[in-house]
Amino acid sequence: MSDRSQRYDVVVIGGGAAGLSGALALSRARRSVLVVDAGAPRNAPAAHAHNYLGREGAPPLELLADGRAEAAAYGAEIVEGEAVAARRLPDGGFRVEYADGTAVEARRLLVTTGLADELPPVPGLAEYWGTGVLHCPYCHGWEVRTRPVGILATGPLAVHQALLWRQWTDDVTLFRHSEDDFGDDAYEQLAARGVTVVDGEVVGIEARDGRLTGVRLASGTVFPREALVVQPRFTARSGVLESLGLAPTPMEMDGRVLGTYMAADPAGATEVPGVWVAGNVTNPTEQVVGAAAAGLKAAAALNADLVTEDTRRAVEARRSPTDTQGDPMTGTDSATPRTDAELWDERYLRSDRIWSGNPNTVLVQEVSDLEPGRALDLGCGEGADAVWLAGRGWDVTATDLSRVALGRAAVHAADAGVADRIDWQWHDLGVSFPAGEYDLVSAQFLHSMGDLPRERILRRAADAVAPGGILLVVGHAGFPHWEKNPDPSVRFPTPDEVLASLEPAPGEWEVLLSGEHERVQNDPDGNPTTRTDNALKVRRAG
Fold first, then answer.
1. Residue 183 DSSP one-character state
2. 483-492 burial by CB neighbour count: b if 16+ within 10 A, else e?
């Protein structure tokens, strides 16, 4: 997550149900998405998540792991980290800053940081939170049905809680604790439903073998209970949003604050243009399935906003052709700095497919006879090489600078039935590089429109080759004949120059292939023509 290594369409802050649902929808909309998650889900203490149609009873962490995998399959990048602040950039985007000092940029933000449950100051509540100490009957009521349940009165919802939990069990005791007298009408309702009311302050809970067994009063009396219901204060995790000038809104009842939330419109848009919220950070009472639905709704609204901006920019460019001659690839003003990732994303977005969909010819010729193992595909594009390798039994790590390309590649892998054999990773190879050793490292046409430190990347590629493994580097030998104004500063190295740039130690590499070859490639008008490329294939000494 180095500065300016990539600008995403959307950074999602918070990787719970709302955040992952939004990331999934946005990735399927072919947006570049980064999910940043601190790894502390609110429902982690609970054994199961409930009322999620089709996933009833799933462990919360399993549900999140599956959600991560689904979003990643469409190209979303998910990283662990703590976002601490965000600030508006002059161009309208955002810079998200992390606790470790790194940062990343985005056109839009979806904040799904949830809330913190602040428990009443009674010893023992925190230790049994989510197991014997509960708050939501729809989350836990079935699991303690017919058992003795206590209600700890700490706010104006106490009577309502007692009557609500009475639906699941006929043994409900309401501990008045710190609350004032409930009033005659409330007492009549409680008596009519058979709810016992106990006066006196609760000072602790009793437990045995990790299970709650009772509630202890200041008088020393212990009431046998197998669950204790409390009303936590719901406090929105709002740090990032506050750094953008948004303030939490108090959630009040009968003049008492029950918590805070971040105000938004029905689709999740906040008062800060470009910032959406979803899940418990804006709706404290939302359950998991509702949070997921809210994430989807916010993602759809956010994508529509991006479409509006993309269209406006396209219209402006069309109306002012003299202002769009700076970059022949993208039609953008050369005075506006563009990252390589943005250039490639925009190129891929021009059409549904850039490349042929077939694996590179030299790769097929030189790898078909190799025993499958671990492969690294550098600059994988829309994934044809990686899919071909996986289909032959290779376990593939495939990287690219374009999230648009990675999203397409993941879909192609799923269609080919090899998604489980490919790990798609986004890397600016001049900044970050995949970890590990590989039996095959393939760099096919590792050229770029921007400043690409190709020699340094290829040295790192060589370092990643395992003993006895293969490094295969294929590149262009020159500009195509239809290029009318080739950049004289661009050089296309020969295979010998590529080998020399690896700075090999004596006897470190065995050269298996080094030379030029010709292939047929259509020009921009669709006419077949001949293109000269070169290839270097070397084996690391075992």
1. -
2. eeeeeeeeee
